[in-house]
Design goal:
about 180 residues; alpha/beta; 7 helices; 6 strands
Length: about 180
């Protein structure tokens, strides 16, 4: 079976999304799962450059066809997203909206992070994933960043240390994902 994709949902220069995604994937691998971290920065998807609607699955652009193949091959997803101004990043929304059928009927986890844990962006993302017929598991970890780390904005984090108290919740979400994948 292909690996579950852990999608790092930010492309900002000083983001920590990839480091958080690596940490989440590491917890999943320690539990015996197969996880691949996918960095949206490696998938440049220009805004609205497809002439047809994604629901039809007819893509003119090579980058969209490649994105379609990558997402279609994945059995499930973990969306790792920061909360920006109570929402999730435009790059993540754009990547999701490039496709339609490729997402359907697959399980997903939302792992949000921010100064308040990212619950508001997680709730918004859950609505969008439901519209695409993804099956989001019940547990969606909300990781709280310390204010000093947010203000430093260095793009560096020791996720193991900063999120130590959240390991159990992440494991629970990944266990739910594993059960959904097995069903």
């Amino acid at each position: 079976m292909a690996a579950t994709l852990v999608i790092a949902g930010s492309v900002r220069p000083t983001r920590i999304a990839v480091q958080v995604a690596d940490w989440v994937a590491g917890i999943g691998r320690a539990g015996g799962g197969a996880f691949e971290v996918l960095d949206l920065r490696d998938w440049p998807l220009p805004m609205d450059d497809e002439p047809d609607m994604p629901q039809r699955g007819v893509y003119a652009q090579p980058h969209t066809r490649a994105w379609s193949a990558k997402i279609a091959a994945a059995p499930g997803f973990v969306f790792v997203t920061p909360q920006y101004n109570w929402g999730y990043p435009a790059a993540l929304k754009n990547a999701i909206d490039h496709l339609y059928r490729e997402w359907a009927d697959k399980p997903a986890v939302i792992v949000s992070y921010g100064g308040h844990g990212g619950g508001k962006c997680g709730a918004q993302l859950r609505e969008v994933l439901a519209a695409l017929k993804l099956r989001t598991v019940a547990t969606c970890p909300e990781l709280t960043l310390p204010r000093a780390l947010i203000e430093a904005n260095t793009g560096e984090i020791d996720a193991t240390e900063v999120f130590a108290t959240h390991v159990g919740t992440v494991r629970q979400a990944l266990d739910e994902l594993a059960a959904a994948l097995a069903a």
